[in-house]
Amino acid sequence: MLLVSCLSSFGDLLADKAVMQIGDDYYEDLTPETTVKILDALANGERPKPGPQSGRYTSENSAGLTA
What we know:
- By secondary structure, this protein is of the alpha+beta class.
- It has one helix and three strands; from the N terminus they run E-E-H-E.
- It has one helix at about 30-45, and strands spanning about 20, 25-30, 50.
- The chain has a three-stranded mixed sheet with strand order 1-2-3, covered by helices on one side.
- Helix 1 (about 30-45) links the parallel strand 2 and strand 3 (about 50).
- The longest helix has 12 residues, at about 30-45.
- The model has no long low-confidence stretch (mean pLDDT about 80).
């Protein structure tokens, strides 16, 4: 395990979101609960879906598509 800085500094919209990188996969918009869920899944040999864990799609903002 390594501590890496700036994984979520994609601008002001995402600057306060927690991000975790495992291998080549990024898990975004993490809460303590979603982090535990991902780690438990990995410990059970599963591969949780990478990307936002909040329900947003890829890089759209939390309010959804704007255009």
